[in-house]
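User: quick one, fold this
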Amino acid sequence: QVQLVESGGGLVQAGGSLRLSCVVSGRTFTNYAMGWFRQAPGKEREFVAAISRSGSITPYAASVKGRFTISRDNAKNTVYLQMNSLKPEDTAVYYCAAGLLARTIMNTYDYWGQGTQVTVSS
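Assistant:
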C-alpha cells in the first residue's frame, strides 16, 4: 500500500513563498507520476501541477503557471511544490497524489495524502 504524507503548509502573507513536500512510502516511488491538487472552502478540488515519473513532463494549471514549480527527488521519495508570489486565492488545502500518468484529472490518481493547509493573508 502506498502512503503519502504532505508537509510545509502554513500561514504566509501575499507575495510570500512556501515549499510543500510529499513523502511517499510503501511502493517504488519511481513507478508513479505525482500530482498536486488543492481544495478551497466551498469549492471543488482542482488540479495544480503534476510531474511524470522521469520528471520530464510537468503540466500546470493556468492559475499557477509561472509562480509554482513542481519537482521530485527520486532518491528521497519526495515530490515538492515550490510556491512563489502567493495570492489570497491560493488559500486551500493542498493534496498530493500518486498515479501512473501525470494527468490533470483527479480520477487518474490512485493514492492520496491527507492534505496540508496553506493560508495566504492579504
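User: anything notable?
Assistant: The chain has a mean pLDDT of 97.
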